Amino acid sequence: MSPWWRLLIYLVGAPLLGGLLAGIDRKLSARMQARIGPPLLQPFYDVAKLLSKERMVVRRSQSFYIVFFFLFTVFTGALFFCGSDLLMVFFALTLSGIFFVLGAYKASSPYSFIGASRELIQMMAYEPAVLLTAVGLYMVTHTFSVHVIAAQPTMPVLLLPGVFAALMYAMEIKFRKSPFDLATSHHAHQELVRGITTEFSGPVLALIEVAHWYENVMLLGWIFLFFSVHWAVGLACTAAAFFLLLVVDNVCARVKWQFALRSAWQITLIFGCGNILVLWLLEVFGILNLNP
Amino acid sequence: MPFVCGLALLFTGSNRLRRPLAGLGAAGVIAGALALACPGLPGSVAQLPVSPEAVHRGMLAVEVAISLYLLVVSVRARLPLVGALVLAQAALLLPLELGGAHPAAEVSRYLVLDQLSALLALIIGVIGGLVCLYAIDYMQEFHVTHHPEMRDGRRAFFAILFVFLGAMFGLVFSNVLTWIYFFWEITTLCSFWLIGYKGTEESQRNARRALVMNLTGGLAFAGAIFALAHGGGPLELDRLVAAKPALALLPVALLAFAGLTKSAQLPFSSWLLGAMVAPTPVSALLHSSTMVNAGVYLILRVAPVLQGTAAGLLVALVGGLTFLLTSLAAITASDAKKVLAYSTIANLGLIVLCGGIGTHEAVWAGVLLIVFHAIAKGLLFLCVGVVEHKLHSRNIDDMTGLVLKMPRVSVMLQIGMAGMFLAPFGMLISKYAVLRAVLDSMPLLAVVIVFGSAATLFFWIKWMGVLLVVTQPHANVEKEIGVCKWSALYALSALTFGTCMLFPLLSAHLVEPYVKAQYHLAQFTALGEGNLILMVIMLGLVSLFPLSFLNYGRNVKVADPYLGGANARSGVQFTGSLGDDRDMSMQNYYLSSMLPESKMMSAGVILAGLLLAALLLKVVVP
Q: pLDDT under 70 in chain B at which residues?
């Protein structure tokens, strides 16, 4: 398939899939809590309703940042699904996250300010693991190209179990799931009101929602890369990983940011870097030959 | 070098005369650097106007004078350490320079004029020149408005600034080690004077600390020359780099040690942090265009020798450790200048890491890091200088509402910060290359970059965020900023943006040819074409951002922020649970309990000290 077709499929398909995943998320979470839950398509109804609302802001320029957050999130995913360079994808992902945080700072309200600060702490917590994923994949495959990594004959996860574990921990943070929904949360028990999104409403909030759908699909793509030996295996493992994220979301209570940061770095250091160390040692002592 | 004499003119100059004269001097330096760098690329040996013998004798005389002066300083300030260091250097070098075996006799190339020195000269000339321009306005305001009680030493101040720049030019264009050493010592002396400019107890103390640490580096440099002269090695930089590693490793390791001190790497970082006490133009000069670049320049020059050696690994480890620890320390700092200082040291650590790895990819990345860092950091320091004078505070949390108080300066600050770490801008291109170079040679060091980058992100964005916050109306105080300051600020902002746009040209015409020549490579392209296109697309997208302000305030209803209680007065007060009106306030996270700055730093000093001890042991006892 040419990259252009993939780009088109991504641009149209990712929000549909992302919205659907959000619906599945709510349905499954409800079932885990012995509730019936909303219809599967509820996220789409929500966004449609938000789009029809009035535009209210605290600072006149705050929405601009969100528009660029959206643009760069879509751009990041486009890079990824066109098979571009994994490091570039990572940098673009960071950039989109920064626009989101800056928008919340711009809103100049205490709740969005502290939400933005916490989002930053979360970024600092998960970034090492995500970057280490790129590093680990490079060590195993000698390339950053998503296209080449996805076409590997063996599953990278076999050589990178520690890095994968660190990435899953980071994903729990990145998906804003429960032990780490510090900056904002879908649930109504947030001490920071809605944290980073407190001052965003109506169409802009809808945009944030859709950006998250795009982002989630792309993040699941990162997980897919670890199992990319066959598309069916990859999809099944990615779905399992997604389910695991939901389970953790439902069985954990929110932790403090100190714990979030410290534990994320420790896990990245022990599992992620430990994995890299072992790989390096194996190669140095000639037990494992990573060269193509 | 020709500038030194021309600018010594400034010794004579009344207050009124200084303005045009210093302005002219700055313009001259910039023009000179441009003229030197553009046509002088072929890398040929430039002609000296006078015989090398005469130059050599002149340098010797000045060196002796400097040593005597420093001895006097050490006696007056009761600093036996300074005296000891000066005497040790003299003991190593004097017999050599006075003795019959004159090292300069067998030298074939006195000057080096390749792409790297041209690039460095551009940085020194353009950024240094702009800083001097800015200093004209700054020092006026500094003395007249803010510190009327202080002795006005501006005559000497400007003279030293220009001598400093001249010495830096000399340093990057010299090929003979004894000459480089001469300019090296001059920069040490200039920084000592400039840091102590205010004359307060604190500034004197910090100046002395800078002096001691840089003299330690000078001693290592002298040791390198001594070892070369007695080991029969070449005293020229280019021949040293081309020599066999067995012969060159000891002096090169000593030179790298000297570079580490100048670039304020970890056991020696405190001098650059202490240098904050100096007036802001001095900090800008030290951090961006002069002093610290001398160290990394030398390390990158000798990088081919370090490649793949244990000494190189140790140097890389020192750099990596410094990058990680100072990035973390920057999170805990609330003083804007301190954040900038930590970030400088961190970036230099990254460059040192590149030099220690020493592969061609790493050197390419290191050179680009120097360029991008110098421009953005210069801009940031100058902006902070303006803000400090207007707000009377350097605390980052006091900078809320800066968008209204100083709209243009706050935008420039944002540009500078974006240049320091954001994706489509230059720094990130270099970080990409660093990561790649590290992975191809020492994958474990990637750990340092992975964690350090996350910390970098955090401290920059939280500062950027504070700049955006607006809680109440403020008057614009930007109008009082002088024209010299504005021109420097505008020029540096344009440069930050321009170098990102022109980065492929810069790389193709200056950096890649240098790397190719050093490593005898036939073909080298550092960044794939696809990634370059991506960078351009991203840069284009980001440049669209200001356009969104065309839509400013249209079709929106403005409301007060949610404060968790009834809003009492527009957006800044709310009715609390006891019925009283309370102010809202916002403050950033500094994570100081999680990352105790002093503990981290002392641990870093000990660790890096051990690494350096290992480095010296390794090369002295092979």
A: 1-25, 32-50, 99-107, 244, 526, 569-571, 622
Chain B residues with CB inside 8 Å of A174's CB?
none
Q: How far is residue B269's CA from residue B257's CA, in Å, rounded to a whole number?
A: 13
Tell me how far apart the terminal alpha carbons of chain B are, to the nearest angstrom: 39
- pTM of structure: 0.92
Number of domains in chain B: 1
- Asked whether residue B322 is domain-assigned, the answer is yes
Token pair in block for residue B307? 């490649």
- B39 close to A (CB below 8 A): no
B568 within some domain: no
**Binary contact (A121, B560; C-beta < 8 A):** no
Give the nearest chain B residue to A91 (CA atoms).
B423
Taking residues A134-146, report their average pLDDT.
91
Q: Chain A neighbours among B 511-540 (CB < 8 Å)? A: 528, 530-531, 534, 537-538
Q: Is the CB of B548 inside 8 Å of chain A's CB atoms?
A: yes
**Residues B508, B502: contact at Cβ < 8 Å?**
no
CA distance linking residue B248 with residue B252, whole number of Å: 6
**Are residues B469 and A108, on separate chains, in Cβ contact within 8 Å?**
yes
Task: Give the ipTM of the model, two decimals please.
Answer: 0.93
How many whole angstroms separate alpha carbon B373 and alpha carbon B286?
A: 13
Q: What is the pLDDT of residues B414-442, one digit of tens each?
A: 999 988 888 777 777 788 888 988 988 88
* A211/chain B closest Cα distance in angstroms: 17
Residue type, B45: V
CA distance A22 to A43: 7
Q: Which domain holds residue B272?
A: 2-41+51-545+587-620
A240: enclosing H helix or E strand: helix A231-251
Q: Do A108 and B471 touch (CB under 8 A)?
A: yes
Dist CA B397 CA B332 (whole Å):
13
**Residue B343 within any structural domain of the chain:** yes
Express each pLDDT in B386-418 by its tens digit.
998 888 888 888 888 888 888 899 999 999 998
The Cα of B453 is separated from the nearest Cα of chain A by a number of Å equal to 8
Who contacts B34 (Cβ-Cβ below 8 Å, separation ≥6)? B122, B125, B126
B590 touches chain A (CB under 8 A): no
- Written as one string, the DSSP assignment of A30-93 is HHHTT-----TTHHHHHHHHHHTS--EESSTTHHHHHHHHHHHHHHHHHHHHTT-BHHHHHHHH
Residue B235 lies in a domain: yes
